[in-house]
Protein backbone atom coordinates (compact mmCIF):
# COMPACT_ATOMS: atom_id res chain seq x y z
CA UNK A 1 0.00 0.00 0.00
CA UNK A 2 1.67 3.19 -1.22
CA UNK A 3 -1.21 5.51 -0.36
CA UNK A 4 0.70 7.15 2.50
CA UNK A 5 3.40 8.27 0.05
CA UNK A 6 1.05 10.00 -2.41
CA UNK A 7 0.88 13.78 -2.35
CA UNK A 8 1.84 16.64 -4.61
CA UNK A 9 2.59 20.33 -4.04
CA UNK A 10 3.99 23.29 -5.92
CA UNK A 11 7.02 25.58 -5.64
CA UNK A 12 7.39 29.27 -6.39
CA UNK A 13 10.08 30.52 -8.70
CA UNK A 14 12.13 33.66 -8.25
CA UNK A 15 15.64 34.93 -7.72
CA UNK A 16 17.36 36.44 -4.71
CA UNK A 17 19.26 39.61 -3.86
CA UNK A 18 20.77 40.58 -0.53
CA UNK A 19 19.82 43.60 1.55
CA UNK A 20 22.27 44.30 4.36
CA UNK A 21 20.82 45.56 7.64
CA UNK A 22 23.60 46.72 9.93
CA UNK A 23 24.29 46.14 13.61
CA UNK A 24 27.82 47.25 14.40
CA UNK A 25 27.64 45.83 17.94
CA UNK A 26 27.85 42.34 16.42
CA UNK A 27 31.07 43.10 14.54
CA UNK A 28 34.30 41.71 15.91
CA UNK A 29 36.37 43.68 13.41
CA UNK A 30 36.32 47.25 12.07
CA UNK A 31 32.74 48.17 11.18
CA UNK A 32 33.64 50.56 8.37
CA UNK A 33 35.93 48.00 6.74
CA UNK A 34 33.08 45.52 6.90
CA UNK A 35 30.77 48.05 5.23
CA UNK A 36 33.32 48.40 2.46
CA UNK A 37 33.54 44.63 2.02
CA UNK A 38 29.76 44.47 1.79
CA UNK A 39 29.74 47.25 -0.79
CA UNK A 40 32.30 45.42 -2.91
CA UNK A 41 29.93 42.44 -3.16
CA UNK A 42 27.12 44.63 -4.51
CA UNK A 43 24.08 44.23 -2.24
CA UNK A 44 20.71 45.66 -3.25
CA UNK A 45 21.16 48.34 -0.59
CA UNK A 46 22.49 48.83 2.94
CA UNK A 47 20.16 49.88 5.74
CA UNK A 48 22.14 51.66 8.47
CA UNK A 49 20.05 50.58 11.46
CA UNK A 50 22.11 51.33 14.63
CA UNK A 51 19.16 52.09 16.88
CA UNK A 52 21.29 52.64 20.00
CA UNK A 53 22.88 55.86 18.68
CA UNK A 54 21.54 59.34 19.29
CA UNK A 55 21.10 61.66 16.33
CA UNK A 56 24.56 63.25 16.56
CA UNK A 57 26.36 59.91 16.87
CA UNK A 58 24.25 58.37 14.13
CA UNK A 59 24.89 61.25 11.75
CA UNK A 60 28.65 61.02 12.27
CA UNK A 61 28.57 57.32 11.45
CA UNK A 62 26.27 57.93 8.49
CA UNK A 63 28.76 60.40 6.98
CA UNK A 64 31.48 57.74 7.03
CA UNK A 65 29.24 55.00 5.66
CA UNK A 66 27.85 57.28 2.98
CA UNK A 67 31.33 58.06 1.68
CA UNK A 68 32.06 54.33 1.32
CA UNK A 69 28.73 53.58 -0.32
CA UNK A 70 29.15 56.40 -2.84
CA UNK A 71 32.55 55.02 -3.82
CA UNK A 72 30.98 51.70 -4.80
CA UNK A 73 27.66 53.02 -6.07
CA UNK A 74 25.61 51.35 -3.33
CA UNK A 75 22.41 52.90 -1.99
CA UNK A 76 22.61 53.73 1.72
CA UNK A 77 19.26 53.91 3.50
CA UNK A 78 19.24 55.87 6.74
CA UNK A 79 17.09 54.90 9.71
CA UNK A 80 14.78 57.05 11.89
CA UNK A 81 16.62 60.40 11.68
CA UNK A 82 14.86 62.30 8.91
CA UNK A 83 16.73 65.57 9.41
CA UNK A 84 20.10 63.81 9.29
CA UNK A 85 19.16 62.30 5.94
CA UNK A 86 18.06 65.69 4.61
CA UNK A 87 21.25 67.35 5.83
CA UNK A 88 23.37 64.67 4.10
CA UNK A 89 21.38 64.70 0.90
CA UNK A 90 20.27 61.10 1.33
CA UNK A 91 16.91 60.46 -0.35
CA UNK A 92 16.31 57.00 1.15
CA UNK A 93 14.90 56.63 4.65
CA UNK A 94 13.53 53.78 6.77
CA UNK A 95 11.12 54.74 9.54
CA UNK A 96 9.32 52.82 12.26
CA UNK A 97 5.62 52.82 11.41
CA UNK A 98 4.87 55.07 14.38
CA UNK A 99 7.22 57.77 13.04
CA UNK A 100 5.93 57.32 9.49
CA UNK A 101 2.43 58.09 10.79
CA UNK A 102 3.64 61.35 12.34
CA UNK A 103 5.95 62.53 9.56
CA UNK A 104 4.39 61.22 6.33
CA UNK A 105 3.46 64.74 5.18
CA UNK A 106 7.07 65.90 5.39
CA UNK A 107 8.81 63.26 3.30
CA UNK A 108 8.53 64.77 -0.17
CA UNK A 109 12.31 64.95 -0.53
CA UNK A 110 12.61 61.17 -0.28
CA UNK A 111 12.36 58.83 -3.25
CA UNK A 112 12.69 55.69 -1.15
CA UNK A 113 10.66 55.28 2.05
CA UNK A 114 10.63 52.05 4.00
CA UNK A 115 8.93 50.83 7.13
CA UNK A 116 8.66 47.58 9.07
CA UNK A 117 5.38 45.71 9.47
CA UNK A 118 4.58 43.09 12.07
CA UNK A 119 0.95 42.43 11.15
CA UNK A 120 -0.84 42.07 7.83
CA UNK A 121 -3.27 44.84 8.75
CA UNK A 122 -0.35 47.30 8.83
CA UNK A 123 0.35 46.84 5.11
CA UNK A 124 -2.46 49.04 3.81
CA UNK A 125 -1.66 51.74 6.38
CA UNK A 126 2.01 51.81 5.43
CA UNK A 127 1.21 52.03 1.73
CA UNK A 128 -1.31 54.84 2.28
CA UNK A 129 1.34 56.75 4.22
CA UNK A 130 3.68 56.67 1.24
CA UNK A 131 5.94 53.71 1.91
CA UNK A 132 7.75 52.43 -1.18
CA UNK A 133 8.90 49.16 0.41
CA UNK A 134 8.17 47.06 3.49
CA UNK A 135 10.32 44.89 5.73
CA UNK A 136 8.38 41.97 7.24
CA UNK A 137 9.56 39.91 10.15
CA UNK A 138 10.83 38.28 12.02
CA UNK A 139 10.47 35.16 9.89
CA UNK A 140 12.74 32.61 11.57
CA UNK A 141 14.09 32.23 15.09
CA UNK A 142 16.87 34.73 15.72
CA UNK A 143 19.11 35.63 18.65
CA UNK A 144 18.19 39.28 18.19
CA UNK A 145 14.61 38.44 19.21
CA UNK A 146 15.24 35.28 21.21
CA UNK A 147 12.21 35.78 23.46
CA UNK A 148 9.76 36.30 20.59
CA UNK A 149 8.18 33.55 18.53
CA UNK A 150 9.01 33.90 14.82
CA UNK A 151 6.08 34.76 12.55
CA UNK A 152 7.08 32.24 9.92
CA UNK A 153 7.09 32.06 6.17
CA UNK A 154 3.30 32.16 5.98
CA UNK A 155 3.38 35.64 7.51
CA UNK A 156 5.76 36.85 4.81
CA UNK A 157 3.52 35.39 2.11
CA UNK A 158 0.40 37.03 3.57
CA UNK A 159 2.14 40.41 3.69
CA UNK A 160 3.42 39.92 0.15
CA UNK A 161 -0.07 39.07 -1.10
CA UNK A 162 -1.55 42.13 0.60
CA UNK A 163 1.06 44.55 -0.75
CA UNK A 164 1.53 46.29 -4.09
CA UNK A 165 5.04 47.46 -3.12
CA UNK A 166 8.14 45.30 -2.53
CA UNK A 167 8.25 43.26 0.68
CA UNK A 168 11.61 42.17 2.10
CA UNK A 169 11.63 39.41 4.74
CA UNK A 170 13.96 39.69 7.72
CA UNK A 171 14.89 37.69 10.79
CA UNK A 172 16.94 34.52 11.10
CA UNK A 173 17.73 34.39 7.39
CA UNK A 174 21.08 32.68 6.86
CA UNK A 175 22.65 29.87 4.86
CA UNK A 176 20.51 27.22 6.57
CA UNK A 177 17.16 29.00 6.10
CA UNK A 178 17.54 31.14 2.99
CA UNK A 179 16.41 28.45 0.54
CA UNK A 180 13.04 28.26 2.29
CA UNK A 181 12.38 31.97 1.91
CA UNK A 182 13.48 31.94 -1.73
CA UNK A 183 11.17 29.03 -2.42
CA UNK A 184 8.37 31.01 -0.76
CA UNK A 185 8.75 33.64 -3.48
CA UNK A 186 11.17 36.19 -2.00
CA UNK A 187 13.09 37.99 -4.73
CA UNK A 188 15.07 39.98 -2.16
CA UNK A 189 15.73 39.42 1.53
CA UNK A 190 17.43 41.07 4.50
CA UNK A 191 20.43 39.67 6.34
CA UNK A 192 21.90 41.24 9.45
CA UNK A 193 23.68 38.95 11.92
CA UNK A 194 25.51 36.76 9.41
CA UNK A 195 26.88 39.70 7.41
CA UNK A 196 28.04 41.37 10.60
CA UNK A 197 29.89 38.31 11.88
CA UNK A 198 31.02 36.11 8.95
CA UNK A 199 34.70 35.79 8.05
CA UNK A 200 34.40 36.24 4.27
CA UNK A 201 31.78 38.90 3.56
CA UNK A 202 32.13 39.13 -0.22
CA UNK A 203 32.16 35.36 -0.69
CA UNK A 204 29.14 35.07 1.59
CA UNK A 205 27.06 37.58 -0.36
CA UNK A 206 28.12 36.17 -3.71
CA UNK A 207 26.84 32.75 -2.68
CA UNK A 208 23.45 34.24 -1.80
CA UNK A 209 23.29 36.18 -5.05
CA UNK A 210 23.67 32.97 -7.03
CA UNK A 211 20.88 31.10 -5.26
CA UNK A 212 17.74 30.23 -7.19
CA UNK A 213 14.54 28.50 -6.14
CA UNK A 214 14.68 24.75 -5.70
CA UNK A 215 11.80 22.35 -6.10
CA UNK A 216 10.21 20.72 -3.06
CA UNK A 217 10.41 16.94 -3.08
CA UNK A 218 6.63 16.80 -2.71
CA UNK A 219 6.37 18.22 -6.24
CA UNK A 220 7.23 14.70 -7.43
CA UNK A 221 4.04 12.73 -8.16
CA UNK A 222 3.76 9.95 -5.59
CA UNK A 223 5.87 11.73 -2.95
CA UNK A 224 4.16 12.91 0.21
CA UNK A 225 5.49 14.03 3.61
CA UNK A 226 6.40 10.47 4.63
CA UNK A 227 8.41 9.71 1.51
CA UNK A 228 9.95 13.17 1.61
CA UNK A 229 11.41 12.40 5.04
CA UNK A 230 12.86 9.16 3.66
CA UNK A 231 14.72 11.14 0.99
CA UNK A 232 15.91 13.82 3.37
CA UNK A 233 17.28 11.10 5.64
CA UNK A 234 19.29 9.89 2.65
CA UNK A 235 20.65 13.39 2.04
CA UNK A 236 18.31 14.53 -0.75
CA UNK A 237 16.57 17.75 0.28
CA UNK A 238 15.34 19.04 -3.09
CA UNK A 239 14.35 17.57 -6.44
CA UNK A 240 17.54 18.99 -7.94
CA UNK A 241 19.61 16.89 -5.51
CA UNK A 242 18.31 13.72 -7.20
CA UNK A 243 19.85 14.37 -10.60
CA UNK A 244 22.92 12.23 -9.88
CA UNK A 245 21.13 9.70 -7.67
CA UNK A 246 20.81 5.96 -8.24
CA UNK A 247 17.32 4.78 -7.15
CA UNK A 248 18.40 1.21 -6.43
CA UNK A 249 21.23 2.42 -4.21
CA UNK A 250 18.82 4.82 -2.50
CA UNK A 251 16.48 1.93 -1.72
CA UNK A 252 19.28 -0.26 -0.38
CA UNK A 253 20.58 2.53 1.85
CA UNK A 254 17.08 3.30 3.08
CA UNK A 255 16.59 -0.36 4.04
CA UNK A 256 19.83 -0.24 6.02
CA UNK A 257 18.75 2.91 7.86
CA UNK A 258 15.34 1.38 8.47
CA UNK A 259 16.88 -1.76 9.90
CA UNK A 260 15.03 -4.12 7.61
CA UNK A 261 13.39 -4.59 4.24
CA UNK A 262 11.10 -1.76 3.13
CA UNK A 263 8.07 -2.26 0.89
CA UNK A 264 9.18 -2.51 -2.76
CA UNK A 265 6.90 0.37 -3.67
CA UNK A 266 9.49 2.62 -2.00
CA UNK A 267 11.94 1.53 -4.69
CA UNK A 268 9.40 2.29 -7.40
CA UNK A 269 8.86 5.78 -5.99
CA UNK A 270 12.64 6.33 -5.97
CA UNK A 271 12.81 5.30 -9.64
CA UNK A 272 10.00 7.70 -10.46
CA UNK A 273 11.68 10.49 -8.45
CA UNK A 274 15.02 10.20 -10.25
CA UNK A 275 13.23 10.07 -13.60
CA UNK A 276 11.28 13.21 -12.69
CA UNK A 277 14.45 15.03 -11.58
CA UNK A 278 16.43 14.15 -14.70
CA UNK A 279 13.78 14.52 -17.41
CA UNK A 280 12.79 18.02 -18.66
CA UNK A 281 9.53 16.80 -20.22
CA UNK A 282 8.52 13.58 -18.45
CA UNK A 283 5.98 11.27 -20.07
CA UNK A 284 2.68 11.21 -18.13
CA UNK A 285 2.51 7.40 -17.90
CA UNK A 286 5.95 7.35 -16.28
CA UNK A 287 4.78 9.64 -13.49
CA UNK A 288 2.84 6.79 -11.88
CA UNK A 289 4.80 4.84 -9.27
CA UNK A 290 3.37 1.52 -10.44
CA UNK A 291 4.88 2.05 -13.88
CA UNK A 292 8.30 1.53 -12.30
CA UNK A 293 7.31 -1.85 -10.89
CA UNK A 294 8.04 -3.45 -14.27
CA UNK A 295 10.38 -0.88 -15.79
CA UNK A 296 13.89 -0.04 -14.63
Characterize the main sheet. 8 strands, parallel
Let me know the number of strands.
8
Question: Which percent range describes the beta-strand content?
Answer: 5-15%
| Uncertain regions spanning at least 5 consecutive residues | 1-16
Order of helices and strands: EHEHEHEHEHEHEHEHHHHH
Biggest sheet: strand arrangement:
7-6-5-4-3-2-1-8
Would you kindly provide a written description of the structure presented here, covering whatever features stand out?
With 296 residues, the chain is α/β, with parallel strands linked by helices. Helices cover 39% and strands 11% of the residues. The protein is built from 12 helices and 8 strands. It has helices spanning 31-41, 55-72, 82-88, 97-103, 122-128, 153-162, 178-183, 193-197, 201-209, 225-233, 247-258, 264-278; strands at 18-21, 45-48, 76-79, 92-95, 112-117, 133-136, 167-169, 189-191. Strands 7-6-5-4-3-2-1-8 form an 8-stranded parallel β-sheet. Strand 2 (45-48), helix 2 and strand 3 (76-79) form a beta-alpha-beta unit. The chain is elongated and about 75 Å long. The relative contact order is 0.14. The model is unreliable at 1-16 (pLDDT under 50).
Question: Brief overview, please?
Answer:
By secondary structure, the protein is an alpha/beta fold. The chain contains twelve helices and eight strands.
Describe the structure using short key phrases:
alpha/beta, disordered N terminus, eight-stranded parallel beta sheet, 296 residues, 39% helix, 8 strands
Amino acid sequence: DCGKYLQTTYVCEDISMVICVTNRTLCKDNFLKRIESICKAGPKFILLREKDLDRKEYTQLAVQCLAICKTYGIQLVLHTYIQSALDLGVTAIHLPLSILKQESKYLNAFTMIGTSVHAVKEVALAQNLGATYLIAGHIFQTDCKADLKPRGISFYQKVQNASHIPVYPIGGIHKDTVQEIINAGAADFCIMSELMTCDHVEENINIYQQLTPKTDLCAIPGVGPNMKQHMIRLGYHWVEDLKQANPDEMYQQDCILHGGQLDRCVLYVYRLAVYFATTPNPEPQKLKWWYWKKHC
